[in-house]
């Protein structure tokens, strides 16, 4: 059951930054919620910008099952695009919408434990919740934390975490309500129709059929993990429906509900 004290963990994909109206609409909704006393954590990706910046620097990038293979020599660009430009562009839009923002990353304040996920993927990180003190302090001040998915090992090595996984770990950390917002209305079936609800068995079948693939596979698996752990549905929807976000936060549906 969500109350005003329930933390809303909103994840936005990088395509949001390519849409000035989408960005403005979403940030207005988020800022209004925060200023009305709602606790909101915004987690973001920036895959589009990473692609652009790697290419501009003559680097070839590939993804395996929706995860970017991240050789060490790519990391300065990846970190700059995600923890730098993307984070600050979002911070700018949220500030302009009237929120007091703290821009940070998974590497800050002991939030998560991070380690290399699979050496074949290079510096891709896997993360587990650690200490929510810093995030809870920011929220207690009525501020809006905007968190990039760059993490750090205890040895100070920077890691690239998929932003859906970043949202998952923060939702677990604060026992929040997770909403994953993308540039598609939700999970689509083989005919491109919106699926309003999915459970574990249905997801497995659609993944096996190749209907759920790439970034959506990572997203749906992240959503299922949180839904099962929290015993409540996780919503996969579009940031294009920002005006309906408040309704979404009340538990109404606009996209696909991933069921526990
Ligand atoms: N069954 C599916 N339904 C919707 N999108 C899908 C599906 N399978 C693959 N996709 C792809 O997944 C993308 C969303 O994942 P991703 O690109 O990682 O989004 P974001 O950057 O917003 O996190 C869609 O734009 C679409 O290209
Ligand atoms: C390991 C991995 O895949 N990292 C992602 C992090 C950004 C992200 O997830 O961005 P979107 O939400 O816009 O897709 C990447 O480098 O693209």
Automatic annotation (TrEMBL):
InterPro entries, sorted? AceGlu_kinase-like_sf, AcgluKinase_fam, ArgB, Asp/Glu/Uridylate_kinase
List the catalytic activities from the record: N-acetyl-L-glutamate + ATP = N-acetyl-L-glutamyl 5-phosphate + ADP
Primary site of residence: cytoplasm
The UniProt record lists the EC number as 2.7.2.8
Marked site: Transition state stabilizer: 11, 219
- GO function term, MF aspect, one: acetylglutamate kinase activity
Q: Where in the cell is it found?
A: Cytoplasm
Give start and end of each Aspartate/glutamate/uridylate kinase domain: 7-238
Q: What UniProt keywords apply to this chain's record, in alphabetical order? A: Amino-acid biosynthesis, Arginine biosynthesis, ATP-binding, Cytoplasm, Kinase, Nucleotide-binding, Transferase
- Free-text function comment from the UniProt entry: Catalyzes the ATP-dependent phosphorylation of N-acetyl-L-glutamate.
This chain's protein is named Acetylglutamate kinase
The organism's taxonomy opens as:
Bacteria, Pseudomonadati, Pseudomonadota, Gammaproteobacteria, Alteromonadales
Q: Which gene encodes it?
A: argB
